[in-house]
Specification:
By secondary structure, the chain is of the alpha/beta class. 30% of the residues lie in helices and 29% in strands. Bound molecules: ligand SPQ.
């Protein structure tokens, strides 16, 4: 079968990805190793920086987001070796010892860097910090972490009553609280737990549904005292703990694997094996959703690596059917909804995604952008305030689309283009480097 032609063109520092489909179709074959988990990479860098002694990290994601985290913590005194996936070494500076940086800390495009770091900065008495990010991050809501930190006694200033970066933080001795978060958010939960590390007494976070639990797992591994009540989705941290540097092995990112799982499912005649994927149960909603849609995915070689469950995932193309995705499943697949929308375009029937209003405040408004870009290609997608309605079965036609500088949108549109007739051009495709720098090379490698 003739392969598609995939070309990357760079003009004025923006990449355009051009996918030209052969009239007789293509298939995807091969094995892919996805890069390290982004959430775990951030946490390993941060805990390594504030622990005592040496932390080693194998499998760190070399995307732009973890690079932002590393540069912020270097600016506050942590010795972090050159970043590479084989081995990163961190000489931690100890809890409460972050130095006052001489310049503004820049979190780039990364919500995780900014929100988690705020918990640590707010709890460093007597030190002053200023934080910012790129234009996308400066428009994302920070009040979700600023408000509970202020309840703990934090002093934080910023535009719109401290809800938008740039933010200024005067570190304080904080007090413990029990925070009932109105949203299921790992960033909110982690920010408060990190602040709680430096507080006398017990700090508790309760969330309405369980969000990813990488912070809880890693804090425990580094020696923090943590208790978890699964009945109420509550986590309690006891302050003034000592953290000890650890060896961390980062599994492959299931959010990156999701692109290949959907690609393998929707492109006829395909078979892909995605190796070394983290299958932490708080992240596997994508597998449940694809199973409901009739995808043929098998888990092979299941094992536990440094406290996180890992497997190889084999996908073969199959006919997909629509399904409903809502409720407690949403936090378990929140970052995979753009690529799930692509799967729904090729499924029989109408897929309804509800309870996902959070998507409107990610790197872009992922509800509006996915609806507009897929509709440009001829799909039938309707926006809902809290999700999407997608009627599958209409063939896609290649055209010009745009990532809106959102990494997950860039990669989702590239997968949609594999099943579109003719030529699709994806503007600002370089956004993929936030979480998956080699995405396009991997794509080229599996097209047959
Ligand atoms: O870090 P950032 O920019 O917020 O990245 C995203 C992503 O798509 O990569 C969200 F846009 O992932 C978040 C995720 O949505 C990463 C994350 C974490 O590591 O704790 C948690 C989720 O966000 P939230 O707001 O639900 O806590």
């Amino acid at each position: 079968m003739p392969a598609a032609v995939v070309t990357l063109k760079n003009t004025e520092n923006q990449d355009r990805l051009i996918i030209q489909n052969p009239a007789s179709g293509l298939s995807l074959q091969g094995r892919i190793r996805v890069p390290g988990d982004k959430s775990i990479s951030h946490r390993a860098l941060m805990l390594g920086a504030i622990a005592q002694g040496e932390t080693t990290i194998q499998g760190l994601l070399l995307g732009e987001d973890p690079r932002s985290t590393a540069s912020c913590f270097r600016a506050m005194g942590a010795e972090i070796s050159e970043l590479n996936p084989e081995m990163v070494r961190i000489q931690g500076i100890g809890l409460g010892c972050l130095q006052e940086p001489t310049s503004v800390l820049d979190a780039g495009n990364s919500g995780t860097t900014l929100r988690l770091m705020l918990g640590l900065l707010a709890s460093h008495p007597g030190r002053f910090f200023a934080v910012t990010g790129d234009s996308s991050l400066r428009s994302r809501p920070m009040s979700r972490v600023v408000k509970p930190l202020q309840e703990m006694g934090a002093q934080i200033w910023g535009r719109q009553d401290g809800s938008l970066a740039p933010l200024a933080i005067q570190g304080q001795q904080l007090r413990p609280i029990h925070y009932h978060s109105p949203i299921a958010s790992a960033q909110v939960k982690s920010c408060i737990l990190l602040a709680g590390l430096m507080v006398e007494g017990q700090t508790t976070v309760t969330e309405p549904a369980l969000s990813r639990d990488h912070s809880e797992r890693m804090l425990r591994a580094f020696g923090a005292e943590l208790s978890i009540d699964p009945q109420t989705n509550s986590v309690t941290i006891t302050g003034s703990a000592k953290l000890q540097g650890q060896p961390v092995i980062v599994p492959g990112d299931i959010s990156s694997a999701a692109f290949w799982l959907v690609a393998g499912a929707i492109v006829p005649g395909s078979e892909l094996c995605v190796e070394n994927v983290g299958i932490n149960p708080t992240r596997t909603g994508i597998l449940e959703a694809l199973e409901r849609m009739g995808a043929d995915i098998q888990m092979e070689n299941q094992r536990v690596v440094a406290g996180e469950p890992v497997a190889d995932l084999r996908v073969r193309s199959s006919a997909l059917k629509a399904c409903e995705i809502a409720g407690e499943l949403i936090p378990q697949l929140i970052d995979e909804i753009p690529i799930l929308a692509v799967a729904a375009v090729f499924a029989q029937g109408t897929t309804v995604i509800r309870d996902a209003a959070e998507l409107r405040v990610k790197e872009s408004d992922r509800i509006a952008v996915m609806a507009s870009q897929l509709n440009r290609m001829g799909a039938k997608v309707t926006e809902r305030p809290d999700g999407l309605e997608i009627t599958g079965g209409t063939p896609l036609i290649g055209t010009d689309v745009d990532s809106h500088t959102d990494h997950r949108i860039a990669m989702s549109l590239a997968i949609a283009a594999l099943n579109a007739e003719g030529t699709t051009t994806i503007g600002r495709a370089e956004a993929a480097a936030i979480s998956y720098p080699d995405f396009f090379q991997s794509l080229i490698g599996i097209i047959r």
